[in-house]
Amino acid sequence: MMEFFNQQMHLSGLAQAAGNPVLACQINLDKNFAFLEFRSIDETTQAMAFDGINFKGQSLKIRRPHDYQPTPGVTDNAAVAVPAGVISTVVPDSPHKIFIGGLPNYLNEDQVKELLMSFGHLRAFNLVKDSATGLSKGYAFCEYADVVMTDQAIAGLNGMQLGDKKLIVQRASVGAKNAMGQQAPVPIQVPGMTQVGQAGPATEVLCLLNMVTPEELKEEDEYEDICEDIKEECNKYGIVRSLEIPRPIEHVDVPGCGKVFIEFNSIPDCQRAQQALTGRKFNNRVVVTSYWDPDKYHRREF
């Protein structure tokens, strides 16, 4: 663990000098926690930025010890550049903090994060768990790295069916208490999208989220196999006119990359597919569905 953190400190440019920032490490295997001792106060504070970093397949929670006495004039809230790819496990209160309720308890952290990241990169994420059992309580909080994605994610996820549950997704600062009480979410209108809490009118085009990742679409053979598998599955519910899966292009921001769009021959065909595919698992990911405007689809506005 010392080697890991020393390496990360240097790779992220947080080390203030040559040599090892971490001097000592004590690990309590019974309670699954460890103490790290740094050579300087400033580097200790900088290391707080690694909250949420992945270590041997686990997302680490980094906190001060309970008996920590802060040095006067030193704060952990100083502007620290969060290392690339690190998602903090602390979601601070802000206008952009999102509440996600109605999550099936069998979904783990990675699965929920993958679902949320269909809309963009996360700055912070916390799946609330029972302290005694370690199992999910069925709700979470998050914040996107690009706050512009906040309303889009809310509009895209709120009311979505996952298994036998419906997601309740809204800003935590204005609706978390209502959401946990199963009351109606605060309505938010996003230009070009249906109002939150409404599924919107059914169309001939279905959009599938969290079904594939951009990485899976890079290789031509794998891309063609995925297209064929999805088309074959969707043909069970109606006639598929066309299929679009935007692929990643190096150094280009591709709209809708990783989303799957299927155009059916009729609205009833699309509705049958929507009912059958919502909440299904594809490569261990829970599929989320929504209807898409046919005009936008034909204009390739993904």
Automatic annotation (TrEMBL):
| Domain of life, source organism | Eukaryota
| Record keyword Repeat present | yes
A molecular-function term among this protein's GO annotations: RNA binding
Which keywords does UniProt give here?
mRNA processing, mRNA splicing, Nucleus, Repeat, RNA-binding
NCBIfam families referenced in this protein's UniProt entry, alphabetically: U2AF_lg
Q: How does the annotation summarize its subunit structure? A: Forms a heterodimer with the U2AF small subunit.
Q: What is this protein called?
A: Splicing factor U2AF subunit
Q: Which organism is it from?
A: Cacopsylla melanoneura
